[in-house]
């Protein structure tokens, strides 16, 4: 056995030296060197006799393949050491392969145990070669398989193509088919040279379609009149007052009364049509899009006018842009489904007609142009330039017309007034009827919240801040409680009101006995609502901010959609609780979609910690329905109870907007006792069904509210509830016909109640302070009910409420009762003329207007003076 790597691998007693050989070319074997067997030094030292025992010696070397190449061989010596003498070697003819292999095995078995750290490089090379060989073989096999598969696939495709080709040739060789082919070959020439429709024809189509859409839009704002059974109305009057008669008058007044509102609406939507034509440069495609859009708008406008006495407004588009378009379809009443189906049928036929005309028209482009080769010739240069210029100018003209329509002195406003336009933005229903829904819509695209008061300045606002800070200190000296020591729950109960107060409506059963009894023992009354049949978010905005829509410009119809999104800082009453806990201690719930009226984004600006809806993440926990209606009020209340139980006694502000009594009011309650109990007279079948369904819903709300208040009484922490209905439902068609019922249809119910753990439990403000109110005064009234200290802003609202118990912008057609857009009520609920208000009340209203401007459209000077915090 070898003890050192430098020792010779042959026993010196057997092989003293090796015979000489001729030096051959070195072979590329890694890890060693070649030593030639023939050199002078070794050949002189070795004698031929030393080779006598060659066949009996054993070769000690690393195991590797030894290949005999001719008679000349060179010996590979490992780089680990040098050998003093080489073993006796003979040519490959005298050494058998078996002997060489045997020697390799012996060398491997004896050398490896003594050299565990050295791995044979030849073995690694051999493994790599085998792996490469295997990989190459695999790739070769895969390649052959792929080629074979490709050939098979190609053959199959070729076979199929040949079959199809043969079938096609067989088909076209039929005599009948040949006749058809010949016919089209002969017709192709004339078809290629088919007539291009003239621009005069386009103008006729443009005029007819635009006129038809104006008439259809105007038709949608009218409703058929109803007459009492004992009334005597002649046939001619009935015709003139019908929908057809009113629509005809709207068109014919151009000649009979020199009022050109029809022409004004034609211009308004005609500019839209024109822009589509020039931008798309395809007349018939633009015609289809315009016709479909205007028809859909007309149908939606008609439905909304019937439900809410309000046309489609620009702010309504946020419902669609926020992905709620599908949900709006659920609001379509059953009696309007025929209109929807009819419109769909008309649009299908209209689209088919336009498609046919598009095929027959040889003029593909309304204005010749070539975007690929715009400068190849004079025709392309002129055409392409004209096409681009027409598109730009049509858009600019449309935007300019719409942008300036409600700005006095602007060109489009001047044009409109010359054509008879008299805006009534505080009453969009009347505005749409007199000016046309298209003009009403376009006049509200650009809205300025408030005009800057002439006296507005930082100095003026500092004086106002000081004045009402002093007033707040005066009020607070007589009040014992802190507002934020109690939890306040503000509940907007969707469409809640007492149906028995509506003229002509009566039941043998009281739909709201619990709330009626509660109103007798706690602060309560009627709220002047700016809406009828809708406008929930406007009343909600007033109750959360203390602002009044009457102070805004009449063009601002929906603050949630037209004002709040553009505001950086929005003040709401829940922020008083956030300041007190130095965190977000306010929460909001609404058992419907989060994006309606942009509540999701608006509530974040308001500072609510979270807003839970049926589509929020996480969603409302309780979402039970009663029959086929919306989420019940009982479920909505249970979400609030859960929030209170999780508060660990911490005071908080909770905002809840319910959904149970939202329109439509189909006959979806399985057990409705109010059908039999309805003793109303003069109602048609549809109106009666809606009122009976609504009354049943009010009954469910009454029961759920009583249970909810009982649960609050069991909680050992002070809680105050502000409960109010936002507006009446738009289902009282019979009562709405009479002007004297207008105020009644804008008065809903409210109450302020404290649980047994509150020091204000059982409190009830005087009738002069509570019988009539508007939602912007609720927080000030709640503070008074709770005997709680107030901020300077709440002090202002308290003073205004005492002087003008209720103020609101609602659909009043009598300008003598206010500014033309605002109505005021005294403590007995009677309308007051603004000129008859006291000088103190007028000053308070002026201060109120300045404060609202500062906090919504102004510089926000009052925020620097802690105006919204308790002194």
Describe this structure in words.
The protein is an alpha/beta fold and 871 residues long. The protein contains 30 helices and 13 strands. The protein has an 8-stranded mixed β-sheet with strand order 6-5-7-3-8-9-4-10, sandwiched between helices. A 3-stranded antiparallel β-sheet has the order 11-12-13, with no helix packed on it. Strands 1-2 form a two-stranded antiparallel ribbon. Helix 22 links the parallel strand 5 (586-589) and strand 6 (610-612).
Keywords:
single chain, 47% helix, disordered N terminus, 871 residues, 30 helices, globular, alpha/beta
Topology (elements, then pairings):
Elements (H helix, E strand, L loop, with lengths): L31 E4 L4 H6 L29 E4 L18 H15 L9 H52 L2 H18 L6 H21 L15 H7 L1 H14 L4 H20 L2 H26 L8 H5 L3 H4 L8 H24 L17 H26 L7 H8 L9 H8 L1 H7 L14 H19 L10 E7 L19 H7 L3 E6 L7 H10 L13 H4 L11 H8 L4 E4 L9 H8 L3 E3 L20 H13 L7 E5 L16 H4 L7 H29 L5 E7 L7 H4 L10 E8 L12 H4 L1 E2 L4 H8 L6 H12 L2 E3 L14 E3 L5 E2 L6 H18 L15
Parallel strand pairs: 3-7, 3-8, 4-10, 5-6, 5-7
Antiparallel strand pairs: 1-2, 4-9, 8-9, 11-12, 12-13
Helix pairs in contact: 5-8, 5-9, 6-7, 8-9, 8-13, 8-16, 9-12, 15-16, 17-29, 23-25, 28-29, 29-30
